[in-house]
Amino acid sequence: MKYLAVGLFTLAIAAGSSVQAQARDYPYCLTSPGYGYPGECSYSTYAQCRASASGRLADCIINPRTAFGPRNSYRDDRRYRYREPRW
Q: Where is the signal peptide (predicted)?
């Protein structure tokens, strides 16, 4: 009975600490008449996408989910304050 309790405890800890897969939007999508829009977006480089598209009726486009995302630049994050002119 003691080993059963230890085994169940270990199983519960292992199941609770499993890491879930992270969703990732890749920058390039393979488009084809068989795929919906925007296509199969699972390519990290344009060369990978073109290699997969060769020999098929397919083309590669930039992933619209990542291409037009929010801009994260230093200038956008700065806070401006009014300063008196130095005369």
A: 1-23
CB atoms within 10 A of CB 28: 24
- Tokens 């296509």 found at: 39
Say how many domains are in the chain.
1
In this structure, the number of other CB atoms found within 10 A of the CB of residue 67 comes to: 13
Residue 60: which domain range?
A: 23-66
Q: Which two tokens stand for residue 35?
A: 């795929």
86 lies in some domain: no
pLDDT tens column, 51-62: 999 999 999 999
CA–CA gap between residue 60 and residue 47 (Å, rounded): 9
User: Is residue 38 included in any domain, yes or no?
Assistant: yes
